[in-house]
Amino acid sequence: MSGDVMVITEHMEGKFSDVSFELVGKARELAEAFGGESIALVLGGGVDASVFASHATLHVADAALNHFNPEAYARVIEALVKERSPRLVMFGWTVIGMDLAAWLSGRMGVPCVAYAKDVRVENGALIVSSQAYGGKLIAEVSPEGEMAIVACLAGSFPAEAGHGSTQATVIPSPVDLGGLKMKFLEVIKPEAGDVDITTQTKLVAVGRGIGGKENIELAEELAEKLGAVVCASRPVVDAGWLPRTRQVGKSGLKVKPKLYFMLGISGAPEHLEGMKDAELIIAINTDKKAPIFNVAHYGAVADLFEVTEAMLELL
Amino acid sequence: MHIVVAIKHIPSIADELPVRHNNIDFDSVDFVLNEWDEHSIEQAVLIKEAVGGTVTVIGVDVIGELDNALHLALAKGADRAVKIAAEEPGADSHQQAKWLAEAIQNMSPDLILSGVQASNDLDGQLGPLIAAYLDLPYIGGTSAIEVTNGKAMVLKEFPGGIGMRYEIALPFVAGVQAAPKPPRYAPVSKVRQIAQTAKVETIEPGEGESGGLRFLKMAPPVVTGHAEMIQGTAKEIAARIVELLKSRGLL
Predict the structure, then answer these.
(1) How does pLDDT run across B180-233, given as a tens digit for each residue?
(2) ipTM value for the complex
(3) Domain extent at residue B196
(4) How many angstroms away from the CA of A218 is the closest CA of chain B?
(5) Backbone angles phi, psi at A32, to 5 degrees
(6) Any CB–CB contact under 8 A between A39 and chain B?
(7) Testing the interface with B: which of A66, A112, A180, A199 to mutate, by most B Cβ within 10 A?
(8) What is the CATH number of the domain that holds A89?
(9) Closest CA to A28 of A60, A2, A59, A52
(10) Pseudo-torsion of CA A57, A9, A180, A250, nearest 10°?
(11) What is the pLDDT of residues A148-174, one digit of tens each?
(12) Which structural domain range is residue A254 located in?
């Protein structure tokens, strides 16, 4: 067992995601505490892998990995983790990392901490803070055993510390990537035509609290009066009340408007990831303990329909 | 075509979450069906409607109140409901996935679905763990699954409205982000009728094994900032907001 910390990086269309740099920066610090090395793992070609501040970067440049293929990624990562026995394997808690971290944990029989917000070493022991329960509680846990896996929320660590120019070492795939059950077919880009919420200066964001598709109209009406556009948190889009192009958050879009007016959004970490940099955040929610009130600039514990109706009368 | 849907009964985050012994005080919280499970159940029923087959819904009965969720799934079109009678509210995802994998293995499924995540997945989600224990591949974040001739066409969601399509040979495990249609509504009368007539099969849990996380502390997040709260009636709140927007040049 080594003191190494392995980071599974992610890239799309030739660019690494911010979370990859965030994890590499943190991995360097943790590896030093464990007396090992930070190793950035890059899967797939079509990307310049020599951009990290890791002690080492391994690049499996197999074309079968160019686009994310959960099965191919999982098998390659499993083989490399078995071969190198790192102390810690770090993923992003992202649409990619979420497919891999727990699977690897089950295969290797080692603990996994999801929703990780902080990772540190105290007296040689690994301690992870996990922001579960929709951001309402932070659990501090210590994974047992000599290897652990963490999947960290994006934005948990500074990205700057992960940027560097460590020369990547190209290695062959440790497993045969022929005969996979999963075959990548194509990338589907969002249909143009709908408004681009990332370029709007004012947004009215609706969450589960809006109650139903029939109530979206009320939010639309308010948005129109404010010169804003309506966007939403994930549950609203999953329910089919608004199109995917309006979704803000981890699995949606990142926005930075001058005004982010929130109706019935509790503020789960996944949503905060997409809007926390808005210049003015105002939140209306019936739950006085909603995590959004720790992030918003102004808040009111009130019925969103009553407040919206009252605003419409004034505008 | 046999589709198995693994569901999770979890503490409701709509309410207060009291803490006891460095974990949730499970006696003081309501348990609800994981919200993503509504989508995995809907996805399963949609596939059944398209190509035929049966849908089995299975979950670990952590507090002895899973029947309601199972009856609802039956009312929505599932054919068979199974619960693993564990009554261990603190059973983590690893533990539940071990029990589920054991039970599902005997069901010879063609496809296993689960919700993409749950708010109490501190040690990871059920789907990828079940896949790992059954030596199957896993894909999460799906928003459409269509089955034809032993294969599935799967659409996986990426940030920014981007999707990726995959062709996957059965069997495999998918974590459903959203069904292609909003989850259907089951009338209360139908659920009630099913509750009276349906048989929920009960399985005793096997050995299981926890995820190996030692809980040191659990508490609400340390708040570094807090919104300035606007008090008053809805009218007063609205007036204050409008005033605020005007003063900032936003109106």
Answers:
(1) 999 999 999 999 999 999 999 999 998 888 999 999 999 998 777 889 999 999
(2) 0.94
(3) 2-203
(4) 15
(5) -65, -40
(6) no
(7) A112
(8) 3.40.50.620
(9) A52
(10) 180
(11) 999 999 999 999 999 999 999 999 999
(12) 197-314
